[in-house]
């Protein structure tokens, strides 16, 4: 009946009955096959019906797959009872938890007084509604008696979550509360950790006993153990004495293995200064002695971190500040509860439910509790009990797949359906693959049940499936070597013990009886810029180029083969055998570009940003001007787009830039839409003069386009008033033939699908409580601001190309060959001011005015990081690292036959200690750890998965000494038993990649056709033909000089072409060309060519990168506070790093924040702060200058040159306009006059542009240059 034959390990999971079972199924262990087989046996042997089982899965796709597998098994069975199950399969409960909850609601809605005529709200619509509710609430607070309270709380959380302020904090609290069975009670209990009576000892508080003590005790015990180990092997007598003193101080912190309840002792004994300095080094000190001295310093640093995290506050400070923090938090909780009530009411008024409502309403049905308050409702108790019993009787077994991804509410809801006397739970999952904590999944639920079920006195059963039927031994052994050193309870939230280790059981036997060979795991490390001849290499692009070349080698080399499961033979590698996995989508654009250059077919899964698609941006621009045509930017975007064609000639697409300039010059004042209307009046299409070509522009063609634009716009604006939004969008497609047009572009089918998706979104939107074009545009903008997306349906795996996806996207999939790239992508650093851990609570800062505490102190606000905040930050850091470990596990275990891991490092030779050497030194610290699992501090110090791999592999004897200039420290593996694993580590640079590519076959020859040439037998040309050919060949274009100049110039590229001959010329805006700067190319060039894009680097901290980041800080600073402080600039810097707008923490660390603050202390800076509403920053402009004025080889007939640039900022006051520009050039104060002279031409251009933009006399514009390096105005 089935080819599946359960193993001895799988058999209990299929056959055991009579109790709850939790199956811990490692990757590739046949979890789905076991689930299906258990279902079949419950039907076949236990004679249950399929609708007597409740099967809950994590995704709709998984549920669909489960249903299909069961159907196939039922179809193949000759048993009549099994045949009957086929008809029942359609009503079987095989679904996601949300779908099951919705079934309960539709069945029992009347028990909770719910209107069954509801609709599920979309995420974007939900965000709009929540924003509207919050806005209304704030208005009520500000106009009512809660105004002072609101302002106090809002001031305390001004930074909030990711800079969103109080609104962001409340939304985060609401999100976490929704994952709890009792959201209102959970919010109320957030105050527990802030309870402290006047005379109460810190060690008697709930916060210390329930939170601090368990965590700090575990970390201090581990540290004590490390100290004892060092003491036992210390070779220096004085060091041994010092270590003995250290141990005496640490041991007094424990009584019978428990941390003492003496707060003052804990504070004093964990201070780093209480531990003496190391004995002095001598010339006779051995390498081992020096290493042991460094080890003690490292232990002291760990102790210092523990002190700062848990014991940095004195008892006096606790009692002084915690009551104030409690008062603030109490009001915050009240605001959150009010928000939940108001939001719930708003949904009810609109007959809406969100996904969390599905779970909470279902929970209310089963418990008889109120949805919002969780109160037991006496009137509902009898009904709820009856429903529970009915369902418990109906479902003889409750099967939960991917149990590690459930949350507390979902678990409690399933428990309501469970009665040990009537039915049982069968839960399957793998905590090592729990990667959805950001969606409120709680992997500790799995661990709690697993540990409880394993206890001897527990009637339930925990089973382990560790046999791996997916991967070759090279994959399983590599994974084991990494994770048995990396994952334990301390950092990974679980122990990677023998029950967790993978055991390779897959069969790789060829048809001829031989076994398919396992290939080495490859680690390729791309090293940039270690060769002085190669400048400006881009780390990630270089790595992608390396990966593309390595894949091209695999595809082209006939010796590179894999095992074919169907034919049981070795065959050539095909593109769809390969998947590229990465932590993020950061490399996707480079992959598409680099792989295209090598003719490698690739399918990228997951649209990075739907709204950035050109076709969507164009249609959204048209919708914006239908709503309001007086918007220049979207109007110009439409005019330049293919939406505008001539009825008489559809090949004429859009307005040209000269045509748009002519329209504006005809009516220079006002909005661009007014200029278009004026042009239509001045040049009517049906009454045009005979000669309509002026200055090379056909005014009749322009008039036709203007008429087409206005006709289309008027028609669509009328449609917007009379028809639905979806009909309007379809009318746009119909009137412009835009669907057909994009279908002929590269990627046409996807572009058409994007436009259809916009139409469908508009149709769905109109079914919501929000109506109209304006609201829809706001709705889309809201999604963009929140980095949300319409997205597309997940694509099926490509059959003819390489698949590219994130690690999250690969969950549940497997591939013959896995490339795991960008492994040194940095872990995210959590810099949120407010942190929430569902079980521990909330951590926050307290903003206090010190003048309120002491009258003699100035009225200055001080921000205190509360102990609750530091403790929860440490918890979240460990949880995040555990999640990253599980992501790494998922990534490694997707591979069936080959695993190739890549990373890249910037390793400039100018750096005294290059990044690669620094990574090497970090990984070499692994040899100091003598236990199998690396110590917590070392694992937490790692910044990437690449660091973890380096730490775990460094101790393996096969790890090579890849740097000739550094020796690998000798490490005695001893009793660690890391295991046999075959891997290689190779350093790759640009030169080696080029060498690899040179040895590739010419992949670009495929598909090319040869052009036929004139042969010897062609007849001779006639005299007329010969004359015509000579005329063609001797033709000289009359405006050749114009073709040798650029029609578009950036101010930054032509500033050197201007020199100022007279100060009066500058004041009058006259600029004189320096002839020496005019090049043959007809463009003003720098002395060096621009670095090609593929060689640029986002990671290298170049002056250009620093300059860009500095300008970004100046642009984003909030000037409304009347001052700019260092802490404000520092916070903004951290925020921009987190958002990825500043490319890396390394760039952020090198920014001169003091110089930014200093700018606002100058007279100009003070004037800016005094008039923040009159300051404009980062102002883009374009202006036409006569070509003859810029290039000596042009005449007035050759037309103008468009010059564009961005003005750093200007201030408009009654006295005039002050233009300012920041420069980050590295100069000394003595060179300041030369700096002004260098940029004088650029400033003059800016002033000229500004005078035109503001319609202001040039004499009223003052230009200032600020040197960031010298912190001085010039």
Automatic annotation (TrEMBL):
- Give its E.C. classification number: 3.1.-.-, 5.6.2.4
CDD domains registered for this protein in UniProt: DEXQc_UvrD
Q: Name one GO biological process term.
A: double-strand break repair via homologous recombination
Query: What family does this belong to?
Result: Belongs to the helicase family. AddA subfamily.
Q: Which organism is it from?
A: Limosilactobacillus gastricus PS3
Q: Kindly list the GO CC terms recorded for this protein.
A: cytosol; DNA helicase complex
Q: What is the protein named?
A: ATP-dependent helicase/nuclease subunit A
Subunit relationships: Heterodimer of AddA and AddB/RexB.
- Which reaction does this enzyme catalyse, per its entry? Couples ATP hydrolysis with the unwinding of duplex DNA by translocating in the 3'-5' direction; ATP + H2O = ADP + phosphate + H(+)
Name the needed cofactors.
Mg(2+)
Q: Which GO terms describe its molecular function?
A: 3'-5' DNA helicase activity; 3'-5' exonuclease activity; ATP binding; ATP hydrolysis activity; double-stranded DNA binding
What PANTHER family does the record point to? ATP-DEPENDENT HELICASE_NUCLEASE SUBUNIT A (PTHR11070:SF48), UVRD / RECB / PCRA DNA HELICASE FAMILY MEMBER (PTHR11070)
**Keywords of this protein's UniProt record, alphabetized?**
ATP-binding, DNA damage, DNA repair, DNA-binding, Exonuclease, Helicase, Hydrolase, Isomerase, Nuclease, Nucleotide-binding
> Which gene is transcribed and translated to give this protein?
addA
Q: Which domain of life is it from?
A: Bacteria
Residue span, UvrD-like helicase C-terminal domain: 503-812
Occurrences of domain UvrD-like helicase ATP-binding (ranges): 4-472
Binding residue positions for ATP: 25-32
Q: Function, please?
A: The heterodimer acts as both an ATP-dependent DNA helicase and an ATP-dependent, dual-direction single-stranded exonuclease. Recognizes the chi site generating a DNA molecule suitable for the initiation of homologous recombination. The AddA nuclease domain is required for chi fragment generation; this subunit has the helicase and 3' -> 5' nuclease activities.
